[in-house]
UniProtKB/TrEMBL annotation, chains A, B:
Cofactor annotation: Mg(2+)
InterPro entries: ATP_PFK, Phosphofructokinase_dom, PKF_sf
Domain Phosphofructokinase: 17-370
Gene3D superfamilies recorded: 3.40.50.450, Phosphofructokinase domain
GO CC terms: cytosol
Originating organism: Cocos nucifera (Coconut palm)
Presence of keyword Metal-binding: yes
Organism ancestry: Eukaryota, Viridiplantae, Streptophyta, Embryophyta, Tracheophyta
Alphabetical keyword list: Cytoplasm, Glycolysis, Kinase, Magnesium, Metal-binding, Transferase
Any one GO biological process: response to glucose
Catalytic activity: beta-D-fructose 6-phosphate + diphosphate = beta-D-fructose 1,6-bisphosphate + phosphate + H(+)
KW Cytoplasm (keyword) present: yes
GO molecular function annotation: 6-phosphofructokinase activity; diphosphate-fructose-6-phosphate 1-phosphotransferase activity; metal ion binding
Record-given protein name: Pyrophosphate--fructose 6-phosphate 1-phosphotransferase subunit alpha
Coiled-coil positions: none
Amino acid sequence: MFDVDGRCYGRRFGGPGGNATGINTALLKERKRQVGVVFSGRQSPGGHNVIWGLYDAIKAHNPNSTLLGFVGGYDLLGRTKDQIRTTEQVNAAMTACQALKLDGLVILGGVTSNMDAAHLAETFSESKCPTKVVGVPVTLNGDLKNQFVETNVGFDTICKVNSQLISNVCTDALSAEKYYYFIRLMGRKASHVALECALQSQSNMVILGEEVAASKLTIFDITKQICDAVQGRAEKDKYHGVILIPEGLVESVPELYALIQEIHGLHLHGASAENIPSQLSPWASALFEFLPPFIRKQLLLHPESDDSAQLSQIEIEKLLAQLVETEMNKRLKEGTYKGKKFNAICHFFGYQARGSLPSKFDCDYAYVLGHVSYHTLAAGLNGYMATITNLKNPVNKWRCGAAPITAMMTVKRWSHGPAAFLVGKPAVHPATVDLRGKAYELLRQNASSFLMDDVYSNPGPLQFDGPGANAKAITLCVEDQDYMGQIKLLQEYLDKVKSIVKPGCSQDVLKAALSAMASVTDVLSMMASPSGGQLPF
Amino acid sequence: MFDVDGRCYGRRFGGPGGNATGINTALLKERKRQVGVVFSGRQSPGGHNVIWGLYDAIKAHNPNSTLLGFVGGYDLLGRTKDQIRTTEQVNAAMTACQALKLDGLVILGGVTSNMDAAHLAETFSESKCPTKVVGVPVTLNGDLKNQFVETNVGFDTICKVNSQLISNVCTDALSAEKYYYFIRLMGRKASHVALECALQSQSNMVILGEEVAASKLTIFDITKQICDAVQGRAEKDKYHGVILIPEGLVESVPELYALIQEIHGLHLHGASAENIPSQLSPWASALFEFLPPFIRKQLLLHPESDDSAQLSQIEIEKLLAQLVETEMNKRLKEGTYKGKKFNAICHFFGYQARGSLPSKFDCDYAYVLGHVSYHTLAAGLNGYMATITNLKNPVNKWRCGAAPITAMMTVKRWSHGPAAFLVGKPAVHPATVDLRGKAYELLRQNASSFLMDDVYSNPGPLQFDGPGANAKAITLCVEDQDYMGQIKLLQEYLDKVKSIVKPGCSQDVLKAALSAMASVTDVLSMMASPSGGQLPF
């Protein structure tokens, strides 16, 4: 445990002051508070800036208030590093909070950590533990996204650092004219990072896990897609290219996913890695034997604490490069491909981006979230997440708030995945790339130009000063994510209708309004019913 | 071929104007000139800025002058991509220069390219071809270093981009506390990039090829060194670390080098990769069989055009990580090591840095070199390299000049390496890290602190604006490299002695001066003799 004494944790770039949260601080009681803060789960750039904002807010309201940080996050909270879930872990956390007389506990993390924060809040409340729990959306994966949360601290940095490196590789590819680069990106199950990086760098191809899952593409379908692209480019005398692969792809490919599930099932039943291959079903065994030895070894790794595969250790980009090479050689031999020999170079951009200094956007976002989490605690809210919306606009237009984490939970009725134990229970689920969203639409519109025309774009290195320092993620800016703003707009429409249709208005107006509103409510009622409006995937 | 019409090739950051070369432009004839420019060999950030400077200089002196660029560099000059060496290639180049009526040909590249430029100049001169040839030191390896050349265009960028990524990995290592990262860096045979990155990032360890070669360390010695470091850190309860490996290390390890030489010899005699293992000598065969399959495959790759190994394809970092893991597991089993299990993650930082936007330093350096190369041509010099010294000082203190490339050539009398065909012939040799130099001394002074104390330093991303934008390479700044400045200083001393010791001075003064100068000339004569002063390695 350490006392957060205001030393520099990362960089702060003129983050807005204490009143930027939009909450009238004069209404808050300025009593002395004891607050704890925990980093839960994996690293993400900008986490320290949340602490900075939180510290500044606490001290601004009472210099005698204290902020305590739990070193390593998990030492105190049990043996697991990614979760606060078992009764044992939850009780350990509660004991610590009570012993330290914490008024509040701020948990920084992604989907799992915030869900755990909600459960912790519930348990504390039931047990009359006075510590209020607040979550902060900090995860480079960018998958803690819903009507209240537009993006996560760290996502902007990761995408900028990776896009720069991808663009550098694009320049190299174009200059050398002889290699295809297969680049795997961090980001867990969802492909948000890969999508954003594809838009920023305008690399030739990106294989989104969500597309693969929606179209149920096998590894051979994907191989064929890439081979056709390579062949198409060869016809234009281009023998280079850059292809982005999200690390989660391996779980999106149906047959690989099924194989991983079987392997994890055997792990759960105590089988050792050496013995698993012989215990696989005939189908899974055939697939397993087909795969190259390096990937077999990686698939046999023990699953993560949340039962998912060790995505960072599975070199899916190498598997694809190898399959594409084999197929291109086959086509060359058969004479269906007449170009030069296909050459691939593989990269994994993971750890070198995760430890980056945070981008200016992430610094500001994190710093303000730190303030917001203080005000959320001070308002006595428990089990809430600190939120900021309208992020695509300048900082003085940001809207601060807090939303109950339970309001972000949904119930999944179908799942055969590692999260199957949550089926039927309300949970915060990682948001996948919305294939009907504007960001994906933008990618689709440009996909053939990206593929064929080498319109590579280099966003350059992260800038802290000068032009470019205020750049924001493309996927953040193209989406209309201002949910609360839109609700406000809707209310304005309703008010307007009310003000038009009042005693004294003409019979025609009343008739038209009645008919229109009857139809609108009909449609909305149907859409809002439990079975309506939602597609079964 | 393209007409260089002043479009933006990379970024220019207020590079000094046309008169920055220090040459009095009024003295130059302003006649119309036709100049060609070639990128020779591998990519390096900043090359386009040389073109920019060259173009600006040419147009400033006569708007009707033309700059022609040879697309791809090698298309015109023969089938090889890295060299202009065979009679066929040289003649093709001469024919092209004559057909295009080129007054000058500017060749951008590293050691090989500049040596080829010198040979080209000689042939042109002998054949009365009027084209003057000028070389420009552009290579990310930083190994074209001598009394005239302090650093190369691209080196600063590569080191900054890599140091940032290494530092990010250091942050990650310190945060996760469970991995050792083995990072291989580009830079060919010499370890300049690795040394600079080690100083910038203050990573735990760096294995310099020059140290390994000087101490004749085997791969097992290196493994033991790393294992001892891991064990030492474990005793302080540290289970993470970052170790830098230059890609050239594989050629510095005596037994691996000998093995590679044998393999290349068999390649030269037409053996196919499949047949080579069975034709190795018993000793080489034993070593080969000991190595893991992935590295065997990589060692069998066909050598580069200059007969050296395909360093970018040989995963020496993985070999070391694997050997260290095996040794640590052995020590654990034997009880000589009592810490936690050793875990390694490997990275290769190559292509993602090489295509980066150039740093501000490289932009300026390249832009001014472009100007200098114009003035060198305009002065009628042939076979010269454009140079700038005093680079560690602000731009207005830089000293521009040109030096005959032949003056940079030395004769190696011993070599059993890939450059053996050059033994006895004058050649420009890649400069290795000077183990008696100040930069290496700085590393040695800090090595134990870097190793044990995790004093990681993150230079942050390349900045184009604001504080940090003017940062320069540490190895550039610690060395006293102002050769021409020092010669000038010496001349001042000589003049001073002359002005003191003249008719009218006392007998004592004359006697003392005579005695001192006799002794100085004695020592210098001995040192300057062919066999003196130089150590046989």
